[in-house]
Amino acid sequence: MSRRAKLTHSKLPISGRILMFFIRHLQQAMASMGELWRTPVSSLMTMAVLGVSLSLPAALQVLVKNAETVTQSWNSAAEISLFVEDNRSEQSIQSLLARLRGNARIAEVKYISRAEALKEFQHLSGFGEALSYLDTNPLPSVVVVTPSGKYSTPARARELLAQLEREPEVSFGRLDIEWLERLQAMVRLLERTVLAIAALLVLAVVLVIGNTIRLAIMNRRTEIEVMKLVGATEAFIQRPFLYTGIWYGVIGGVLAWSIINLLVWYLDSALGELLGLYGSQLSMQSLSFAELLQLVLLASFLGWLGSYLSVRQHLRAIEPA
After folding, report:
1. Nearest CA-CA partner of 161 in 104, 79, 92
2. Quick check: pTM over 0.90?
């Protein structure tokens, strides 16, 4: 900004200064967009690189979100099987069921009698005719206990199992929790992988934008020297480059969101066919509108950061002769 412009600006009231501030920023933002349209090929290539770079961690985030959705019911299904002693009467078993249903740590109690257990085993095993020749029913009565949400974790479920095994009617209990621990470990590993890859790609985005802005500064070196000769401030000179970086980030974020939606649409039918074999009707979830805004805001910030670092380094090196 020249001295004459500064004097004119100082005579304006506060409301006028605020209005001029936003007008200047809007003008420079639109001018920076015009600069991008003057070099469409290089601009689009840079935006495509940013979009692909941002889509990789976003795709992993979508994968983690869908994995958590699919396994949500599994995570809450840490069932405990309590095998009842053979010599217990029906009245004793009903007393056990009443105590279990009154336990605040237990969300659901399901009783499977010996006859029901044998009938289910005959149906699932395929040995129905052979089992009919048995003189006695070898299967015990089973009480299936589902812990409440607070006690569905492996450690808390083991504590609950130890408590329930002390019931006088219970012969022993079993908690099939190893698969759940493996599943949780895999999800944690996937989350850390997402963070690590996201950090690397964020650095790549900053470097790509920084190098792009550096080339733009070098191409406009003469213009920058003239602006410094007429008294333009550093903030006035660097502002268009900062807006250029923001535009790169915004459009790159929208491209990343579009890529993720296309990927989800492409994989949804295959995943639906696979889950249908297991009786599930789930479908893949894409990025929500809130996640889209977060992605665009993150990409805008990365564009601004890469531009700022490049501008601060290279503008100071340009001085009029």
Report:
1. 79
2. no
